[in-house]
Amino acid sequence: MGPSLIVCPHCARLHQRVLLKPGAVASCVRCGHELYRHSRLSLSSWLALTWGALAVFCLANYFPVAYLSMQGLSLSASLPAALYITWQQGAWFVAVTAALFTFAFPLGQILFAMWALQCIRRRRLPHDFRYGLRVLQGLSHWSMVPVLLLGIVVAMVKLADMAVLRLGEGLWAFGVLSVLLTMLSRLSASRLWRMTEDAGLVPRSGQAVDFDKPLAGCTACGFVQNMPDSGVCRCARCKATFHFRKPRVEHRVWALLLTAAILYIPANVWPVMTLRLPTGSSSHTILGGVIELWGYGSWDLALIVFIASVVVPLSKLLALSILMLSRHWRGDRVQRQRTRMYELVEFVGQWSMLDVFVVLLLSAMVDFPGMSQVRAEPGAAFFGMVVVLTMFAAMSYDPRKGWDAADPQPAVKRPVVY
């Protein structure tokens, strides 16, 4: 049996998958992208981590994140309460989006990872195993608990002068959950497929291929096989349909970018929330919230919100536009820089949701009937749409096409191990 093959998702370089020492990382020899790493955790340890994450997830959503009191009135704010109040106010897009990104998708990520590990441990893969890992692959991109945690901190700072505030048990649980989900993010669908491959439960990638014909890796499971002339293939291992390169990239990315750029204008001009007090109402825009945090003396949080809500969305729009316009080959060094730019766009994509989560949480923390209320406004919904569209644009972009100008089918190499 020959060595297993793995293809770099960013430049299409084929590599032999080699055994690594615990903690070691294998990187692409062409673009430097991390291909895989050998975890120090065993299968049982990963399974215990998923059970721990599930328990902490339940605690984080059951207990309040904060206790507040104002002029004799008191309340406890939790994530489910914030979602319910926002829905009642009519801001259904904000409520549904936040519910998916902070509750449904993280829970699904935990449960599907746990289920897959149990299947591998029992050495028996059900017929729907491949569908479960496809769902896990999609959920991992949209799980935003760390962004929610930062949003809770920002919301508390905004309320420091309005009410007496005490930290709740749910806040600490969300802190622990953020750490656990960050660790679980390394348990990707690709890693689980490699674990099943090493256990002998599925065929090894790249076996019985003809190196004189075009090769490609399945985007769902990474299985390397020959591609037909049509450029469309059905994976022999997971039965997913994939393309040699993503089709209609230019039309799809430009459409998403232009739509996001148009929606970015009302997202910044229109208010994201309205604060109602007995003395009157005041509306707040994104930049207004940054200035307010700066006025409170929280310059560090003001800088974080400014970067996440203003700099990051504009940078994503600009970076993706540059990547789409700069398609001419200018050497490995320049293309490697473009790949790094794309990786950065992928990494920072979800952090732009910070302002939407802040508005959501304030709606629960300032819900004192007759005294104060925060209401989500259309600006928050438009801003959430901008974040979602830019994330879809980054997912639709194909960085491999930039490397095709040099060599669309590079030879098989051993990865760089460190």
Task: Briefly say what this structure is.
By secondary structure, this protein is α+β, with helices and mostly antiparallel strands. Helix content is 54%, strand content 13%. The protein is built from 14 helices and 15 strands.
Q: Given the helix and strand composition, which structural class is it?
A: alpha+beta
The major sheet is characterized as:
3 strands, antiparallel
- What string gives the helices and strands in order? EEEEHEEHHHHEHHEEEEHEEHHHHEHHE
First-to-last CA distance: 26 Å
Q: Averaging pLDDT over every residue, what do you get?
A: 85
Shape verdict = globular
Specify Rg, calculated over alpha carbons.
23 Å
Give the uncertain stretches in residue-range form: none
Q: Beta-strand percentage?
A: 5-15%
Put simply, the count of helices is 14
Count of beta strands: 15
Order of the strands making up the biggest sheet = 4-3-15
The share of residues in helices is 40-55%
